[in-house]
Amino acid sequence: MKFYVCIKQVPDIDAPIQIKNGNLIQDTDRTVLNAYDASAVEEALVLTEKHGGEVEVVLIGPNQAKETIRKALAMGAHKATHIETREESYDSSVYASILASFFEDKDYDVISCGKQSQDTDAGLTGSMLAEHLDLPYSTNAVALSAQNGQLRVKRQGDAGQELIALPLPCLVSCSNDMNEPRIPSLKGIMQSKRKPMETIALDALEIDESALEAKTAVTGYREKPKREAGQKFEGEPEETARQVARLLDEEANVV
Amino acid sequence: MSTLLTHIAISDGKIKRSSLEVLSHLRRQAEQHGHQVEAVIIDAEASRYTGQVQQYGPSKIYTVENPVFKNHLNAPLLKALEKVIEQADPSLVAFASTESTKDILGALAAREEAAVLSDVSTFELTEEGIRATRPVMAAKILSENEARGDMILVSVRSGSYDLEEQASDAEVIEIDFSVDDQDLRATLEEIISSSGDTIDLSEAETIVAAGRGAKDEKGQQLISELADVLNAGVGASRALTEAGVMDPSLQIGQTGKVVSPQLYIAVGISGAIQHVAGMASSKVIVAINKDPDAPIFDIADYGIVGDLYDVLPPFIDELKKIAS
Fold it and tell me: What InterPro entries does UniProt report for this protein, alphabetically (chain A) (predicted)?
């Protein structure tokens, strides 16, 4: 099976952040492989280890995103393509257009990606790309298996889990509930340096100017109004439990 | 004057309250800006729900009725939305942010070449489109966004707006719809698990959520007793759904459901940012945890430091007294 996994470098959401004049400032430039994409890489590795095949990762981003590509290669992906952009960030529709143009002349069984980016949580690019490429797809996958030339997806829906069979080629977006992505071994890290990584300049893809125009824009950031810590009770459990129950009734009016 | 279309989501034979919240908001926006608001119901029994939707004041209701919509599948839903959009020619289509919506929103935007903003907490119309607020960075930060274009799609978090009835005698328009195997593209083989008759978390007034601290059988028993007394939905942190203790559809957080109930009781939950991202907009938060330094206490209105096995029995007992 030939897997392409679309990955993204994102800021570490656990790192401290500040807002200055409406701009988001990271105290460190700590970036990570998007956690949902890491699960997609892991699952592609598991399936190709079982059924044979190849995992190629694709990343759109500036030069410093190469370290994120190395991470995926160190996990075990076989090769990588880096679509190199300048510093600007794009909206989901631009990412999807760039990827659609990249995949136009490629052969594959499965394109996978994380179900959302952990910084913006938009969750749009996967199904946009499927639509551009006219592929059957599923989102929010929590388990994958390959059987009889189909990809079988367990999808977390609103009320329950759906077992969906997709014909190949197809696209799937992955939840981080799918697996625990492997930590690259020292051997994996050493090998990653010799694995093929092709860099394509964005201009070389000759994408329509209009497809690169974002339809949405972030105009600013602000702090979320902070919740104040309320009353904290550390006394004897029997008494404090009863006291809080009464407060919920008499003070908060929520029971 | 342009048309603002609201998608009415149906789940378990009921209209999702969150889509009526979106419809209420859109109707107020339409009045302010001189537009008309319409609704679309896509379901195996779509016509059953038109009466209730009329209570919220759309001028037209489109129905697409077909057995294929008994369970969610993205390809036929997209086809149905495309047909309705062709007929209604809306400048804006608004959705409640459900898993079904998340499954199709990007694809629909690509198909319609529409601008799209997902999972917003508020939005309003502007001259060129919409302005919307989205929580980002695990909901620690709010981003302000603009979307412009001839057609805009937006999905809205549940609990963002109040319901407001305004009865209308909306015209009901049935859209002719059929599917063949070609349209399905994928096969739905099985619905593996379903939370069945449990309370829908995205709509629950009260939620009792269990974390790692309530992992064992006795903890689970106490959680369900507490939920019974309060007629609450039961949720879980990722630790418990991953461990297989709780159904994955009950997970609350950045990865799972985002909820905003009147009362949220976190039991044995430390309060990792990924969990907080899914519940921080609850009106009143109660935390029960034996670790006095657990971060959940920083956002709790009422914090009880103590072992849940000591705290919950008297807590439940007192709530029973209040209820009676």
Answer: ETF_a/b_N, ETF_b, ETF_beta_N, Rossmann-like_a/b/a_fold
